[in-house]
Amino acid sequence: MSDVQRVEIEYCTRCRWLPRAAWLAQELLTTFETELTELALRPGTGGVFVVRVNDEVVWDRREQGFPEPTAVKRLVRDRVAPGKPLGHSDQGAP
């Protein structure tokens, strides 16, 4: 596992999805405050809303729709802190 654990949320500025991206960023930073070393918000266009962990796409709105925070938390956890309990976010997990 790399020392750098980076999450990037690319969002469409034309769609005005900054508040959604910022809210998701806050959720991730709160949950992974000691595991993440960087979280970036990346402005984009064309209806983009993509979450990447260490340059790996873990969620793409075009394929999966808008993510629920719990789903993204699980995906991030599996990459940066395997085994970390997520409390109520783990309930109902596959």
Question: Can you tell me about this structure?
Answer:
By secondary structure, the protein is of the alpha+beta class. Helices cover 32% and strands 26% of the residues. It has a four-stranded mixed β-sheet with strand order 2-1-3-4. β3 and β4 form a beta hairpin. α1 (18-31) packs across α3 (69-80). The chain is globular. The mean pLDDT is 91.
Largest sheet entry: 4 strands, mixed
Question: How many distinct beta strands?
Answer: 4
Envelope shape: globular
Helix content: 25-40%
Protein structure class: alpha+beta
Mean pLDDT level: 91
Which parts are unreliable, with pLDDT below 50 for 5 consecutive residues or more?
none
Radius of gyration: 13 Å
Distance between the termini: 24 Å
Layout: helices, strands, pairs:
Blueprint: E1 6-12, H1 18-31, E2 38-44, E3 49-53, E4 56-60, H2 61-64, H3 69-80
Parallel strand pairs: 1-2
Antiparallel strand pairs: 1-3, 3-4
Quick structural gist:
The protein is an alpha+beta fold.
Short descriptors:
94 residues; 4-stranded mixed beta sheet; globular; alpha+beta; single chain
